[in-house]
Specification:
The complex is a heterodimer of chains A (400) and B (441). Chain A is an alpha+beta fold and 400 residues long. Chain A has eleven helices and eleven strands. In chain A, 41% of the residues are buried. Chain B is an alpha+beta fold and 441 residues long. Chain B is built from 14 helices and ten strands. The longest helix of chain B has 37 residues. The chains are: A alpha+beta (400), B alpha+beta (441).
């Protein structure tokens, strides 16, 4: 089909097509950048936790008064929780992971205090049951033995640890970490008994999220935390059951929190999920507004050119020719707009990268955005164009 | 003349209901999205203590690791928190009008009545100046006296919420509350107080609510109050065992205390800077500080900036939603063009009857303005809904929302935007030669 007459028809009324092309350009740019940010955030939110996260519930209690006995409470709680129908496995963990709160420290392979080659990690205290309760996977070495759990409040007894593979690599490179010693900042030795393939720690925005050390210790004078694995699908419904049970068996303490791991994760990723939702909302509205604009312009054009269309039909143009005319026109405008949009997307991505701490957009994100807008442009024009094909050739012979 | 034009534009809006509605909808959606994002930005970038911005200061000194700055990205800046020892050294100074060392803590509260089970709540150790410096409103009673600041008296100020819970909202001044292992006497109950951002302690998130109870700072030794905020340490220290641990930790090199001063005059500010400089160089001579030149005082605004309270995400969203508004306006320009062109005949008659180009131009702009008014109002409604939705997404329960400033911004933006959108079409229509249209009539 000859583009020239279409082009000259457009030139007779430039403003409309220019407006649409600009809208398409901005839309393509925003949709590609949003698409990039959205997919990056989705990837972040969906990283594996290394735990049986869907089926985990965490309970925390705080004791008060002189009579509170931490170890006795621990045994009583374990028994009560394990007796609950629906509970698969229970272990001690000083606080839940992925809450945005926790402890971090550095350890080194050298006994020198505050050694220069210290590597940062989050750390936790657990008992020998927690590995099973959390659903962690030990890939080298072994779990703690019950005799290795420090039940006193003696700081020096913090002598055994499980480490994640990522942290083992930080310390020992490719060598096996099992049975090796690492040292805390005071130069006290800690024996690594096993390596866990993967576990996420406390802060989702930290680049050391997968660096974790688990100590065999029940330390903590008045508080206790439990990791509770329940049967699949029961996590939410078990929360009130666990809370009631813990309150019932001992009134001499406060059940400070019973929550599913997914609830903690939702909170930790709230910023990211909110960003995803808002970008989806803005992009969807934007595409809707732009396509309405295309429909509007096409409808206006069809109305304005009724007479010319009738004349063309009278001169032998088929309905298909008329349809093609408007489709080609739409293609032309959206193509120009999309090309502009691609350039705009790269410029914006570059500018965002310099202004904010945002990674640069992968180039191919513009492809679906530009392609999608082309399709939407053609689809939007279909309705008005079909109405144009219905214009009777007889119109050409009427004067008004 | 204005009211006549207004009547004309209402007529014209009525005559073209679909096109007019579309235009209003485009403006409403654009304004709605943009103002929603701008309001979130406005909330995040707010400064609740703006009226005391040249009086209230957050000092900073640098006693951090000699080998490494506190933040690699801010090598000229000390940490955001203080060690106990430094906070107490600053507290010796008589230069500030008010001064306050404070940190977040928490404990179990044991209500008198059996109906209410014991619960754990979040509290704050602080000096009585806290309530002065930050203009904290009291519902009943007031802060404890200066003697209680020494730490010998078990007194407490409750939040309104906690007072509602424990005493059913009654005036509880003089009543006793059991918190942890001790009985405390209530000296005051706060009124509603929810500063956004939580400028006085940004370390655990800038958008949390304030604490539920407040106690004299120096009680920390007796209560061994746990640190519920951030604790950062650069040096490994042996705290020993048993009863030695807490005092050893308190006197160690870990930072966990927030410090604020009120310096009303320029002279006070200069003197205080000199005081900080003298303290820093004295500590440098003792071998404690490697970067004694890193001391400064920050206004609340500077402090919010330093802590990067406004997220990059939010700035990006404001920019994107502005572009969205631009697209909505481009759309409106197209629709207006179509609408005005459809009226070329009518305009030509008016021109022929003596209306000048300027008259026609003015009339078109007034019509755009009225569309902007309606679109803007709808946009404000959409933005109000949008802000509620966004607050829900962030699970933010604070009172902050759209204020008058944002409503006015929305309205003015809507009208200006629709007039700007109307400029080109209105000008186009004035250029139509009347003769051509009159002939066909």
């Amino acid at each position: 089909m000859d583009i020239k007459p279409i082009f000259s028809a457009m030139l007779r009324n430039k403003t409309g097509p220019i407006l649409i092309a600009l809208q398409v350009a901005i839309t393509v740019a925003i949709v590609s950048i949003s698409g990039f940010i959205i997919s990056e955030r989705i990837e972040k939110v969906q990283r594996p936790t290394g735990m049986d996260d869907a089926n985990l519930v965490f309970a925390e209690i705080a004791g008060f008064g002189e009579e509170f006995d931490q170890i006795a409470t621990y045994h009583q709680d374990l028994k009560a929780l394990e007796g609950l129908p629906g509970v698969v496995s229970v272990g001690y963990m000083n606080r839940p992971p992925l809450t945005g709160g926790g402890s971090s420290s550095t350890f080194s392979t050298s006994p020198e205090p505050d050694s220069d080659d210290s590597k940062g990690t989050a750390y936790w205290n657990i008992d020998e049951r927690a590995v099973d309760a959390l659903g962690l996977n030990i890939i080298a070495g072994r779990n703690f033995d019950i005799t290795e759990i420090n039940r006193t409040n003696d700081q020096d007894m913090q002598a055994y640890a499980l480490v994640t593979e990522a942290y083992a690599k930080d310390l020992f490179g490719e060598e096996s970490a099992v049975d090796k010693l690492m040292y805390n900042g005071l130069g006290e030795p800690i024996r690594i008994v096993g390596v866990i393939d993967h576990m996420q720690g406390a802060w989702v925005g930290w680049d050391k999220l997968d660096r974790n050390v688990l100590f065999s210790s029940l330390r903590g004078e008045t508080s206790l935390g439990y990791a509770i694995r329940v049967e699949p699908g029961l996590a939410d419904s078990m929360v009130p059951v666990i809370e009631t049970k813990l309150q019932e068996i001992n009134r001499n303490r406060v059940v400070t929190s019973v929550r599913t791991l997914h609830e903690f994760m939702d909170r930790s990723y709230r910023q990211d999920t909110a960003m995803i939702k808002m970008l989806v909302a803005v992009s969807t509205l934007l595409v809707a507004v732009t396509s309405l604009g295309i429909v509007g312009l096409a409808a206006f054009n069809v109305n304005q050119r009724r007479k010319q269309i009738g004349t063309r039909r009278a001169l032998g143009a088929t309905r298909a020719d008329i349809l093609k005319h408007f489709l080609t026109e739409a293609m032309l405008i959206t193509s120009v707009g999309a090309a502009l949009g691609v350039a705009l997307a790269f410029a914006m991505s570059f500018w965002l990268g310099t202004q904010f701490n945002l990674p640069k957009m992968d180039w191919w994100y513009v492809v679906p955005a530009a392609g999608g807008l082309l399709v939407i442009g053609v689809l939007s024009v279909l309705g008005p164009a079909r109405r144009a094909t219905l214009i009777s050739p007889a119109l050409a012979t009427r004067s008004v | 003349m204005f009211s006549y034009y207004l009547k004309l534009s209402l007529l014209s809006i009525k005559r073209n209901p679909i096109l007019s509605t579309l235009m209003m909808a485009a403006i409403a959606v654009g304004i709605g999205a943009f103002i929603t994002m701008l309001t979130v930005y406005h909330i995040q970038s707010g400064n609740p203590l703006w009226y005391k911005n040249d009086q209230v200061y957050h000092p900073q000194i640098d006693m951090w690791n000699p080998d490494q700055p506190y933040r690699e990205s801010k090598p000229d800046s000390g940490p955001d928190l203080f060690t106990y020892r430094d906070a107490m050294a600053l507290h010796e100074s008589d230069i500030p009008t008010y001064k306050v060392a404070t940190f977040k803590t928490g404990d179990v509260i044991l209500p008198e009545s059996d109906e209410l089970a014991p619960f754990r709540d979040v509290g704050r150790m602080t000096y009585n100046d806290f309530f002065q410096i930050f203009d904290v409103p009291f519902l009943y009673g007031g802060a404890w006296d200066d003697r209680a600041d020494q730490g010998g008296e078990f007194v407490v100020v409750l939040s309104r919420e906690l007072n509602d819970k424990l005493f059913g909202g009654e005036n509880s001044v003089g009543e006793r509350v059991r918190i942890g292992d001790h009985e405390f006497t209530v000296t005051g109950v706060l009124d509603e107080w929810y500063p956004v951002p939580k400028f006085y302690d940004l370390t655990n998130g800038a958008f949390q609510g304030p604490e539920e109870y407040f106690m004299p700072f120096q009680l920390l030794h007796t209560l061994e109050s746990p640190q519920w905020g951030n604790t950062n340490c650069w040096k490994s220290e042996d705290y020993g065992t048993g009863d030695e641990v807490y005092p050893n930790f308190v006197n160690g090199e870990c930072i966990w205390i927030t410090y604020w001063v009120q310096l009303d005059t320029e002279q006070q500010q200069e003197e205080y800077m000199d005081f900080l400089a003298a303290y820093s160089s004295e500590q440098a001579e003792l071998g404690r500080s490697a970067r004694p030149e890193n001391q400064t005082i920050n206004t609340v605004e500077e402090w919010l900036e330093w802590n990067e309270v406004v997220g990059d995400d939010n700035r990006v969203l404001v920019g994107l939603s502005f572009l969205f508004l631009v697209v909505c306006l481009l759309n409106t320009v197209g629709l207006l063009l179509a609408k005005f062109m459809g009226r070329a005949g009518e305009i030509s008659v008016r021109r022929a009857l003596g209306a000048s180009r300027l008259d026609v131009f003015r009339q078109q702009l007034i019509e755009c303005g009225s569309i902007g008014v309606v679109g803007g109002m709808a946009g404000i409604g959409l933005a109000a809904l949008g802000v509620i939705a966004v607050k829900k997404m962030y699970s933010f329960s604070g009172p902050a929302g759209m204020d008058m400033e944002m409503v006015v911004t929305a309205f003015v933006t809507a009208i200006l935007a629709s007039i700007a959108a109307g400029l080109w079409p209105a000008w186009q229509i004035t250029r139509v030669p009347p003769a051509g249209y009159l002939k066909t009539q």
